[in-house]
Write a structure and sequence with these properties.
Helix content: over 70%
Strand order of the largest sheet: 1-2
Distance between the termini: 62 Å
Number of helices: 7
Shape: globular
Number of strands: 2
Length: about 180
């Protein structure tokens, strides 16, 4: 039989990791809702960003939390360029063209990462690394807390943007009726 402490610990960690997965799904859902593209390489871009953080750590001893300040603008630009030069060309054709394009990107990213970094597990130490917060009998890893809080903040900001701004109304209009929104 599972003790109450172990069950509470598992539920707490599950909720925290689930918030991060939910944030990843929000990005994937927004992309599909607005463009109609199924991006199977979405998770691979996340892995690529993490490997760039690993490279910044091994080259410059830059903490992963600080390397996000470099990685986020790089991937914003990469996303813009990929959309402009690849995905935009398949928006108005059959959905399978976008699927094939994203699957091709998936294979290219995976193969490139395997070639450069190998298949072994790798981790990047951070300043929070092994810090653990203890609340009674429960122990919560500091990186889980940071990831959970950031995921919740980003989700709330996205919800507010979609619900209250002109950009949000435009995005919702595109999702509801693309033809009317273009008019």
């Amino acid at each position: 039989m599972v003790s109450g402490n172990i069950l509470a610990q598992a539920i707490l960690q599950g909720v925290m990791i689930g918030a991060v997965y939910g944030l990843i799904c929000l990005g994937l859902n927004m992309l599909f809702a607005v463009t109609g593209l199924l991006n199977f390489a979405h998770g691979n871009f996340l892995a690529l960003a993490m490997y760039i953080c690993l490279s910044l750590y091994t080259s410059f001893q830059l903490d992963p939390y600080l390397s996000m300040l470099i990685t986020i603008p790089i991937f914003f630009g990469l996303g813009y360029l990929l959309f402009k030069f690849l995905f935009k060309k398949v928006l108005n054709v059959h959905i399978l063209m976008g699927v094939q394009l994203s699957l091709g990107l998936l294979f290219v990213i995976e193969s490139s990462l395997l070639l450069v970094y190998g298949a072994d597990y790798q981790s990047v130490p951070s300043f929070l690394g092994t810090t653990v917060l203890r609340v009674g009998e429960l122990s919560i890893s500091a990186p889980f807390i940071v990831a959970f809080v950031v995921a919740i903040i980003i989700a709330i900001v996205l919800f507010r943007i979609l619900g209250t701004t002109r950009l949000g109304r435009s995005i919702r209009a595109i999702v509801q009726n693309r033809e009317a929104a273009t008019l």
